[in-house]
Amino acid sequence: MVGITLSGTQALRKVMKEQRLLNFLLEYITPERKAKFEAVLSKRTRHLTVLLEDIFQPHNASAVLRSCDLTGVQDVHIIENNYVYDINPDVVVGSTKWLNLYKYNELPFNTIQAYEKLRSKGYRIVATSPHHDGYTPETLPLDKPLALVFGTEKTGLSDYALQHADDLVRIPMVGFTESFNISVSAALLLYTLSRRLHTSDISWQLSRKEKDELLLQWCRNTIKRVEVLEETFKKRFE
Known about the structure:
Helix content is 47%, strand content 12%. By secondary structure, the protein is an alpha/beta fold. The protein has a domain at 43-198: 3-Layer(aba) Sandwich (Alpha/beta knot), CATH 3.40.1280. It has a 6-stranded parallel β-sheet, with helices on both faces. α4 (89-92) links the parallel β2 (75-79) and β3 (100-104). α1 crosses α8 and α3 (58-71) runs parallel beside α7. 29% of the residues are buried.
């Protein structure tokens, strides 16, 4: 019981310290930028997340990140089985500063680990594929948190990713071309699903604690010489 109490006390102290640091750093943010941060946070969500399996073209990788930021999806999970996930700075336009990226690359095949991690966080795994019947963006159930899985540009998702998904989703097409580009598919799905979420009764928003954690992260990513300010904070308040 003593160990549990100490652990809880330490966690509380950590939260209080981070809150004080956030309040300190916000003094160096303009009112306009702070208002922008709060406006963006009001639309941020972890009810939807994106899982990318072996995306290797920098243009597509960066375009997906940009779509995540613009539709309010905070977390992006990246599987690197055969290819390293490279980002094109000309396409991403700074989106990586505002997102949380999680990579899975320690094993020869990392899709299993990524699926287990997301399921442990309560996500249903939804594989995207134009070649399999499944839900559409308009019919996919949103009552539970969803992880949308996109595959490599050449061959799509691995057999494991498809066979072990909880659901499948496809974007209806009426032309001769086989499928949408992956970055276009991600944009269409995320736009439709986020719009549906925003008009639903589902509790999709971040908690105040999550918002404050992101505020601190964004302050650190945008304030010049923030490390100097943090040293000043330590000397003044610790």
